[in-house]
Amino acid sequence: MSIPQRTALVTGGNRGLGAAIARFLHDAGHRVIITHTPGNSTIDQWQHAQAAQGYAFAAYGVDVSDYESAQELARRMYVDGYRIDILVNNAGITRDATLRTMDKSGWDAVLRTNLDSMFNVTKPFLDPMLERGWGRIINVSSINGSKGQFGQTNYSAAKAGVHGFTKALAQEVARKGVTVNTVSPGYLATEMVMAVREDVRQKIVDAIPVGRLGQPAEIAALVTFIASEAAAFMTGSNVAMNGGQHMS
Ligand code: CAA
Asked: Are 185 and 242 in contact (CB under 8 A)?
């Protein structure tokens, strides 16, 4: 049976977990488009480096925390002829601080980028998926949305919200060929995790039963399965992959 080529959009697909997901979806035969933050001056260089390794990625700048910016992205992509079948809401940030020291801007930035983005980016791509009767929406949450994390009231709240969004939307579109799922990665060897203070990070790694950080490719393989034809019966799920650090 031949596998149809789909078009996938991965937000924040130029680094960390997003880049691994983009590459895996490409390896699975899909056409892949990534988004990056607007004004990223190194994106051309990044695209060339990827192309040299056989990965042809179209790239668009968008501020996922901004509704208008996401609408504009969808318009530009439509004009350029892209129809999105697989949406991976991956872009996210951290602004770690205990609640006592967190300021309003650190709260707002994380909620807007990590949670408002679910609405902003999903909204313009949903109707076309429903019209075509096929779609995969995969929302990237985190272990810390399930277990909470010292220093991450903002991030844990947003990432817990991601799965609430997933479950509600999954019900709304289940009859229309569109699945909506959450993946909840644990601590991965990415820049985001490497930015955690070394002593704090070491304590976290010590608490992971498999004894190491995860690889972005391990999560990307999971996302690629959820995006496949074979995963049509899976919707509203939250799939954890965290080295045994949190079992629920
Ligand atoms: N539980 C209980 N107490 C803790 C604790 C914990 N998990 N962590 C720290 N404390 C205690 C410390 O022992 C310390 O106590 P004393 O004052 O009695 O010594 C006190 O709280 C202050 O701790 P810190 O020195 O860590 O405080 P800080 O203000 O210097 O740093 C912080 C605060 C920046 C939030 C830091 O604790 C931190 O980086 N924590 C880790 C946050 C984290 O895991 N981020 C994940 C980023 S990656 C990501 O988010 C991806 C993903 O999805 C997994």
From this structure: yes
Q: Which of 123, 90, 5 is nearest to 56 (CA)?
A: 5
- pLDDT tens for 12-41 read 999 999 999 999 999 999 999 999 999 999
β partners of residue 185 = 241
* pLDDT > 80? residue 4: no
Calculate Rg over the CA atoms of the chain.
17
Report d(CA 18, CA 200) in Å as an integer: 24
203 burial class (0-12, 13-18, 19+ CB within 10 angstroms)?
exposed
82 is catalytic: no
The answer to whether 114 and 62 are in contact (CB under 8 A) is: no
How many of the other CB atoms lie within 10 Å of CB of 153? 18
Residue 47's CB is within 10 A of a number of other CB atoms, namely 18
Query: What's the whole-number average pLDDT of the chain?
Result: 97
Distance 215 CA to ligand 1 centre (A): 23
* Span from the CA of 114 to the centroid of ligand 1 (angstroms): 20
- The domains located in the chain, with CATH, are 7-188+215-241 (3.40.50.720)
169: pLDDT confidence band, cut at 50, 70 and 90?
very high
**Mode of pairing for the β-strands spanning 135-140 and 178-185:** parallel
Which atom of ligand 1 lies closest to the CA of 197? 39
| pTM, entire model | 0.97
Q: Which residues approach ligand 1 with their CB closer than 6 A?
A: 94, 96-98, 142-144, 149-152, 155, 187, 192-193, 196-197, 200, 204
Reported as half-sphere exposure (CB side, CA atoms, 13 A), residue 114 has a value of: 28
